[in-house]
Structure formats: C-alpha cells, structure tokens
Write a structure and sequence with these properties.
4-stranded antiparallel sheet; elongated
C-alpha cells in the first residue's frame, strides 16, 4: 500500500514475525502500543457445528507488521522492546530483509481487509470451476485448485510460508 505524504510517495514495508502461539496476541498488542500496524492474519470460514462463520488464524504463530520503517529501524525497535518481546521466536529474514516482496504485499492487500481478515467469498460453479461473484477471491478465482463445498473452503495454488493459502468460499446456486 502507498501513502501520499506532501507529494512524496511513502511505501509501506511488511514484516513477518514468528512467535509462540500462546504469546502472539500479547506481543501483537505490545507492537500496537508502539504505534505499529501489527496484526495476526485471520481467515473467515464456516463452522458446521455453530452453523455460521467464525475466524481462525491464517498462519498460526505469525504476526504481520505494516510500517514505513526501514529494516534497520524495525530491527532496532524490536531490540529495544527487551523483555516486552516475550514470545518472539524470530523475525523471518531472507538475506537480512524481512519486508515482504512487492508481489506478496500486493496479494495480501487484495486478500486481507483493513483488520487483516481474509473474508468469506461467494461463488457459483460453472464448467467445473468456481466463478467468484463476491469477496477477495474475485482477484484469485483462477488460482482455486480445490473446493471443499461441505466445509466451504477453497485451496489456492498460491503458497506462503510453505503452505497453500486457504480461503472461505460459499457456493451459491446459479441465479
């Protein structure tokens, strides 16, 4: 995402932290109190036992942080947290950089809402393919490789953190 600041385009970096699942919410709160846009990505999905939609973690143990901070400033902030970073296992880094690649940022900007939730999409089936009519999968219907109609889940051929991305998908009757 881009922010416009007096004619200068400021690009957000996205950082990914790996934390103990039992402590990720607390660590996320600490980061928010420091003024960072930290969130735990969640997926909206259907639960048959409650006959309704609910949320669960998209990537358990992972905290995403959107920030204009450069990598070195972000590293310093994490270091300065000291004991407050309890539960942090590591910052995901590739060649010293944790900021997600531009194409990953673009994908998450399309899939996740402002609260970091991958909302349920709706589709109908035509020619054995899902035709998405509503929701974030509208951008990624060609990436759906499997649909579990019973559990209302779509599996995408897009991998992140070495696993396929799952998304809630309700199949409607064609109008």
């Amino acid at each position: 995402s881009y922010k416009y600041n007096i004619g200068v385009v400021m690009k957000d970096n996205w950082y990914v932290l790996f934390a103990l699942v039992a402590k990720e919410n607390k660590l996320c709160s600490v980061l928010r109190r420091k003024g960072l846009d930290a969130f735990i990505p969640k997926i909206e999905y259907y639960r048959r036992d409650i006959k309704g939609n609910t949320l669960k973690m998209l990537f358990p143990g992972y905290i995403f942080v959107r920030s204009e901070m450069k990598q070195s400033d972000f590293d310093n902030l994490l270091y300065e947290l000291g004991e407050q970073r309890d539960g942090l296992i590591k910052q995901l880094k590739d060649d010293g950089v944790t900021a997600l690649r531009d194409e990953e940022i673009e994908m998450f900007n399309k899939l996740l809402n402002s609260e970091g939730i991958l909302e349920m999409s709706q589709a109908f089936i035509e020619d054995n393919k899902a035709k998405v009519i509503y929701g974030p999968l509208i951008h990624y219907q060609d990436h759906i490789v499997k649909i579990d109609k019973h559990n209302r889940i779509a599996v995408l051929d897009i991998e992140f953190l070495n696993r396929h991305i799952l998304a809630g998908l309700e199949i409607k009757s064609k109008i």
